[in-house]
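Hi team,

As requested, here is the filled-out complex form for the S-adenosylmethionine run. I kept the field names the same as last time so the parser does not choke. Let me know if anything looks off before we queue the next batch.

— J.
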Amino acid sequence: MTTGGDGAPEQDAGPERMVRLLAGFEVSQALYAVAQLDIATVMNEGVRGVAEIAARTGTDALVVKRVLRTLGDFGVVDQRGDAEFVLTDSGVTLAANVPGSLRDLAIMLMETHYLPFDRFVETVRTGRPAAEIYFGQTFFEWLNTEPGRADQFSAAMASVTDGMQGDVFSGYRLPVGEVVADLGGADGSVLLRLLQEHPDRRGIVHDLPAVVPAAHTRVADAGLDTRVDVVGGDFFDDVPVADVYLLSTVLHDWDDESCAALLTRIARTARAGARLVVVEMIMPETAEVHSSKQVDLTMLGMISGRERTLTEFTDLLASAGFRLDRVVPTADTSSYEIIEASLTG
Ligand SMILES: C[S@@+](CC[C@H](N)C(=O)[O-])C[C@H]1O[C@@H](n2cnc3c(N)ncnc32)[C@H](O)[C@@H]1O
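And here is what came back:
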């Protein structure tokens, strides 16, 4: 079965296609169950029969069969016989402990994004993020006061780095500069990956105070605590002094005004000749299918951010005194890109 860009079977058209789209929330919940209950993890160990899957995961065999049968329509599993299923390449990403696993992302999305989206109609009416209406505070404020949620979010972001960002960093070398500061660096996954290529550089992971414990652990586990500092703080108030600033999927979290404030703070603090490395999806100017369009819905519903076109990135960077130097050519097939910029002043 081939599926369209939205995961719905391609032969569906008109009303059938619309019904599938409208019931997308059921598919999301089914995927969450398969990830959260480790059904995919067990299947990835080679277990095909629903009876054994159910026994290993403490689930109901008949329900597992019905759920997997449905997910077959969405290209997540292949059915082999009456009650046997195998994961497709896409389905494997829901298993734990596989390279590129998106299990943590599946859990985070359904446990922190799903319910707030109930208020999306109000977002469309007012422009206010649904999550802000639902939680009564901004998503990041909620995240950093709810026990365990900051770590959960960082783990999900790390799974995007390891999975969805594909090989965007493969062979990439940072611009010159001794100290590299990763702002909004979460658990430091992106910085640690990039520093592998640069044993001579020092790094700083900067994020909100509730997030940095995960970075301390990850940096220590990598044996890099003498080379990488971890700093907790609000990047709108203060940023560390550095030669290279890394902003990986940070600018898309914020509206233009907030981005300009952050970039201006960097420009005022940075060492002379500082460079900026921005990792983001770049929204096409045309109508082509692109993952950034779906992520733009997340930005609308959860925070005040947005996905941007190259022209919009160029203008945004220029508003704070940065010149966009290049979009780094990579052989990578993911939707993520690396943008380099430098201070013009
Ligand atoms: C979308 S995540 C990106 C994480 C990481 N850079 C990556 O690429 O996986 C955005 C990060 O910005 C952090 N953040 C949000 N507001 C912040 C603030 N005011 N100061 C510092 N970090 C902040 C969040 O805690 C989160 O880790």
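Two things worth flagging: The chain has three domains: 15-92, 103-160, 167-343. The first strand starts at residue 77 and ends at 79.

Thanks,
J.
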